[in-house]
């Protein structure tokens, strides 16, 4: 069977933490505490999730399992069917609304039409909700779930103080994260979430995309948003960022982040879309709606 899931780790990362890597698509995380196992995100399909659980031996031994859905984006919770019924699935209360309002089901219809792999996916919602933070006491390790909106309204990160490790999921991304919408409030939330994560003082900052645990990624993300605001603020009027227009000189992603040209084409285009979204939110935030 081959979904392509494999185990990964980072130098110095505690052995109780396993990275469950689905190629370049997404990383989920498995944490083994004294009292229970915790799976942070269920990957893109129930089948992938089942294979991941087998890889870390969570299908054997009957240990209690707690599942966290970091947010309701497809690559982070579509595997829920593999664990529904045997574990509480914890998420922020805003995840409830995202699950209910239908857009996540619309994404499934679209992706299932494109790729047979998603044809058998059945969406299962989280079952346990919190508002700002909730702690899971595993005995040896504490997992603090912190609401960190901005990339998505329901986004949460997991902070493990004993290991100075933050599972930042999509709040921090290499090379850049993406804001939820062009509403200036979402941009402000994303930047505030980055500051909230920075205050934790993590030594390992584990991302879901970009395959790194370097805290410097967060500093670069913050510097990027600061530079965006500064450069857009220095313009007398709001520039056009219509999808078909080339971005003006000085406002391209390569003007803010190094190494973009070295990315594979698909990844470069992907992050250029992120950048356009961030830029649109910044322009509205600085110049108001046009
Ligand atoms: Zn993601």
TrEMBL record:
Name the record gives this protein: Glyoxylase-like metal-dependent hydrolase (Beta-lactamase superfamily II)
Sequence similarity: Belongs to the metallo-beta-lactamase superfamily. Class-B beta-lactamase family.
Keyword 4Fe-4S among record annotations: no
Key words of the record: Hydrolase
Coiled coil stretches, renumbered: none
Stretches assigned to the Metallo-beta-lactamase domain: 25-209
GO biological process, alphabetically ordered: antibiotic catabolic process
SMART domains linked: Lactamase_B
GO molecular function, a single term: hydrolase activity
InterPro entries given in the database record: Metallo-B-lactamas (IPR001279), NDM-1-like (IPR050855), RibonucZ/Hydroxyglut_hydro (IPR036866)
Taxonomic lineage of the native organism: Bacteria, Pseudomonadati, Pseudomonadota, Alphaproteobacteria, Hyphomicrobiales
Entries under Pfam families matching the protein: Lactamase_B
